[in-house]
Structure formats: structure tokens, C-alpha cells
């Protein structure tokens, strides 16, 4: 994994805006898949060719914007709408066996669970503490924070979990490797879902939630290996580490939550066993929705748990105004010598495009604490489906310019 040896490198957190052509093709493909299931008529190859062209154009556009460690934009993770908060997760439903539609709208109909001391369980998505505190705002269609909250019917586990996405991940990696080669870029990353997040659906097959989670670990490990074997950097996406805190009622103690979370860390480390840490980066986030986030866990409470994950780099939100102040954590926490950090210094949570001097300030704060060579500048979270494409690309450009200004300060 590259380090910022001569300049502050620039990356992003994963999802980038899909083009109208790709969104339309995703919608048509979903319709074709439904027909194919009924009639047995196979899908056409038009989509595969289009996806390859779209990924190639995206990587070149990232390069032109100043991104030095690009991703594939998660283009292989289907979005059939310009606004989509869940493609990073829901793509796994097509790559795992043992799942069937549960017919439950997670925002309205999901069963509500309650935690107790020493017994932490997730409540429903619709019963998050953040949504309770700001009930009126979340239910006001003009508030601006209900975007993307359309009905979502997610599956449940009713059989043995196994990985079935070999063809999909082979196509994703081939498209991305070719795009990187065509653009003359030496390193890129591809995202994949963690076991802890993959298992955040109803389980009716495995005897325990831990057994279900480890089944997901064994399955997703195949995807992890495929990404690394293709010569790419693997990025693990796992909101379950931080975002779960808001999804537990009543609020647990920090000790109980960390014990609950450590099980998810252990399952992830099990899935990553024997894989090269210097080819793995981990993305921590508090959730991508545009809401108040007053119920987030503090970074200071979670940082050591994060560092216990077997990765060589850690991405986390640092531009989001709810968490920007947490750069001070690194005054007291020593980053291991073989690790780097990839703080988000422009945010997906606002339409305001950050000034490059502010971006440079944010980068410099981290560089002064952990060393300039161990900081890569990034976005807080994925921009695709969260902000307008024109704004997303402006944010990537200001991110790159901010990195150039930080480089001048740090190497000047």
C-alpha cells in the first residue's frame, strides 16, 4: 500500500455518482433478471460492456480530478436510482446463498428489540435513537433528511450462507484493473462488505447470531481474496463497528457496546486471517444518512477497537462537523508504526464545497501528529447517491487541491 512519501496522496471512500446511463442500465437489468428467472432466458452481454466502459471513464475522471489512489466507484454494486444509501450493503444479497425475501420494510415494519445491561441487541432501523430524538424532522418530507428513505424490503437468512458472487467479483476486478492500466495508475482499491454488516439481517437458519456472522465471514472471505489476488487494495466497509451504537435501545454503556462490537471485530479478523495487512484498509463510519447524529459514539471510545482490526490503513470521518474535532484523539493515541490513516477531510454530509485551505488545515492536523507519510486524504464516506454528482466532483477537486496545499506546507 502506497504511503505519502513525497506528497499527500488523495483517495476517496468508495461510492461515486453513477451516470444516468448506468442507472438506467441497472434498472433495465433488474427487470431482465426478473424475467429471466421466470422464463429461463439468459441476460444479454450489453450491460457487461457498458459497465466496463463506465468504470474506465470513471477512473480517468478521478485521475483528472487529482485522485491518486482511486476506486471503481462501487459501479459493480447496482444503483437504479440517483439517491441510494444502501448499495454498499445490499449488493451482497445477490452474492450470498441462503437468503430469501422477508417482505419487511425495514423503515416501518421491522420488529423492535430492546437491550438490557450485559445483553446488547440491535433494535430496528426505524427505532434508532437519533430518529426518536428528532422524530418530527425525520418525518417531515421537506426537512431534507428523509432523502433515500423509501420503502426497503431486505431479505432474511433461511438457509446455508455461501458465496455465489464469483462471476460478479471477477468482472468487477477485471474492469477495474484494466481501467487502472489504461489510466496509468499503479494502485487502486475496491470495497467489500464486512461479516458484521453482512449479518445485519434477520436470521431464521443458524442457531445463534454468532454462528450466522461467522458463516458470513467464511463466505465474504472469498471476495476479499479475489480482490487482493487481482492486485488491488481491499477496503472493508463496516458501519457495524460504529453505527450500531445508534441502533441500540436503550443506550448501552460503553463497556457493553465495546464487548458487543469486539465480536464483530473478531469475526472480521477471522475472515482476514493470513491475508496481507498492507493490502487491506478498513472504513469506519457513523452512517451516511443526512441527520443530526447526536447519538453517535465518540471516536475516543472506539479508536482502540478500530486499531485492533487487522488492516494496514484506517478510514474515518473527520470532515463531518459532528466528528471534525476528534483529530485531538491522536494527541493521546499512538498509531502503530506499520499503520496509516486515511481521514475524511471533505464531507458527504453537506452540499457546501469545502475551501481547499480548510482541507489543507485538516490534513495538516493529522500529519503533525502521526507523520506526513502516514496520512492519505480522503472523503468522509461515499459520495455516490448522497450528494449531487456536480457537487461530488467539486468536492474531489477541492480535496486534491487541499492535498497539494498541505504538501507545500509539510514539505516546503
Structure summary:
With 412 residues, this protein is α/β, with parallel strands linked by helices. The chain is built from twelve helices and ten strands.
Keywords:
11% strand; TIM Barrel; 12 helices; alpha/beta; seven-stranded parallel beta sheet; three-stranded mixed beta sheet; 10 strands; 412 residues; globular
Please, could you describe this protein's structure?
One of its GO terms (biological process) is methylation. Its EC number is 2.1.1.14. GO terms for molecular function: 5-methyltetrahydropteroyltriglutamate-homocysteine S-methyltransferase activity; zinc ion binding. Keywords: Methyltransferase, Transferase. 39% of the residues lie in helices and 11% in strands. With 412 residues, it is α/β, with parallel strands linked by helices. The protein has one domain: TIM Barrel. The protein has a 7-stranded parallel beta sheet. The chain has a 3-stranded mixed beta sheet with strand order 2-3-5, with no helix packed on it. The radius of gyration is 20 Å and the shape is globular. The mean pLDDT is 90.
Amino acid at each position: 500500500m502506497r504511503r505519502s512519501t513525497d506528497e499527500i496522496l488523495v483517495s476517496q471512500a468508495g461510492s461515486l455518482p453513477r451516470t444516468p446511463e448506468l442507472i438506467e442500465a441497472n434498472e433495465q437489468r433488474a427487470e431482465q433478471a426478473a424475467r429471466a428467472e421466470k422464463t429461463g432466458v439468459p441476460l444479454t452481454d450489453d450491460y457487461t460492456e457498458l459497465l466496463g466502459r463506465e468504470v474506465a471513464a470513471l477512473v480517468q475522471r478521478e485521475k483528472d480530478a487529482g485522485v491518486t489512489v482511486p476506486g471503481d466507484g462501487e459501479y459493480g454494486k447496482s444503483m437504479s436510482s440517483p439517491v441510494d444509501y444502501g448499495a454498499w450493503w445490499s449488493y451482497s444479497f445477490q452474492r450470498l446463498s441462503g437468503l430469501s425475501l422477508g417482505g419487511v420494510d425495514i423503515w416501518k415494519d421491522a420488529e423492535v428489540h430492546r437491550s438490557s445491561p450485559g445483553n446488547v441487541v440491535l433494535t430496528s432501523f426505524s427505532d434508532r435513537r437519533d430518529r426518536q430524538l428528532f422524530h418530527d424532522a425525520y418525518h417531515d418530507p421537506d426537512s431534507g433528511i428523509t432523502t433515500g428513505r423509501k420503502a426497503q424490503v431486505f431479505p432474511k437468512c433461511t438457509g446455508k450462507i455461501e458465496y455465489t458472487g464469483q462471476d460478479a467479483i471477477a468482472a468487477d476486478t477485471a474492469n477495474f484493473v484494466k481501467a487502472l492500466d489504461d489510466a496509468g495508475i499503479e494502485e487502486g482499491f475496491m470495497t467489500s462488505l464486512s461479516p458484521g454488516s453482512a449479518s445485519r439481517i434477520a436470521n431464521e437458519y443458524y442457531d445463534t447470531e454468532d454462528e450466522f456472522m461467522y458463516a458470513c465471514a467464511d463466505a465474504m472471505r472469498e471476495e476479499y481474496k479475489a480482490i487482493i489476488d487481482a492486485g488491488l487494495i481491499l477496503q472493508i466497509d463496516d458501519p457495524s463497528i460504529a453505527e450500531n451504537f445508534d441502533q441500540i435501545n436503550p443506550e448501552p454503556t460503553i463497556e457493553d457496546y465495546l464487548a458487543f462490537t469486539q465480536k464483530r471485530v473478531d469475526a472480521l479478523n477471522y475472515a482476514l486471517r493470513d491475508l496481507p495487512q498492507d493490502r487491506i484498509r478498513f472504513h469506519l463510519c457513523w452512517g451516511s444518512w443526512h441527520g443530526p447524529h447526536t447519538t453517535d459514539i465518540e471516536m475516543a471510545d472506539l479508536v482502540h477497537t478500530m486499531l485492533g482490526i487487522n488492516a494496514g490503513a484506517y478510514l474515518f470521518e473527520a470532515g463531518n462537523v459532528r466528528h471534525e474535532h476528534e483529530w485531538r484523539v491522536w494527541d493521546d493515541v499512538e498509531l502503530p508504526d506499520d499503520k496509516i490513516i486515511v481521514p475524511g477531510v471533505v464531507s458527504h454530509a453537506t452540499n457546501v464545497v469545502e475551501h481547499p485551505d480548510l482541507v489543507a488545515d485538516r490534513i495538516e492536523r493529522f500529519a503533525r501528529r502521526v507523520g506526513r507519510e502516514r496520512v492519505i486524504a480522503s472523503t468522509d464516506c461515499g459520495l455516490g447517491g448522497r450528494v449531487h454528482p456536480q457537487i461530488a466532483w467539486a468536492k474531489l477537486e477541492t480535496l486534491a487541491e487541499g492535498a497539494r496545499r498541505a504538501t507545500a506546507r509539510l514539505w516546503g
